[in-house]
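Consider today's protein:

***
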Amino acid sequence: MPLPHKSHGVMAGCRGEPGLIELGLKFTLAYMLGSMLGSLVVGKLRGGVDIRSLGSGNAGGTNALRTQGKTFALLVMIIDVGKGILAVLLIPGLDLPLVGIDASVDRELLFFSVAFAVILGHVYPLWFGFRGGKGGATAAGLLCVIAPMLAPAILVIWIAIVYLTGFVGLATMGSTVAATVILAWTRWPQGQALVVFSACVSVLIVYTHRSNIHRMIKGTESRMRRAHRGD
């Protein structure tokens, strides 16, 4: 998918109140979509399971796999990856009632604002007391749309780190940072907005994994090969 055209320079702002309204509303819509956590949606459909009270206490796909099995985790991943894809494919171009599409809004700024908002919603979900996941799956969905040619390489990096270390959190952090490095190498300066966005996502992903970093340093972090193998 080609990125939106830059109307007034990289990451330029928007002019006037109508533009701010469109930007603010679409940011909010993306955040609300991100707040629909796959693990908690699937958990409610499966008898009210809240995986935040189980295992590591995180509402992401890894804890879903360890505590609920493969089918549950697969459904969680479909939702969490899918909402990232849906957010950037649908929301930036929405013709909102009474707001419309304001020509003064920098479409690239709006696009990346929506992309970041859906990850924020996943990490700090409005619907679930601001206790969400760590953003990796939703960021992966965004990568499939924003830089689809890069996605296979990042997947290989993720798999390699998991295979070599057993640490899913380390793989998520490492592959996210690797995406930023590769984008900076191949897309700068023409794609500087994309690089800045990727860097911001990397910082957020590393921050959400700070407890994993602490456990890895202490030697208490769970490894993937110890994950629950049932269904």
Summary: The chain has ten helices and no strands.
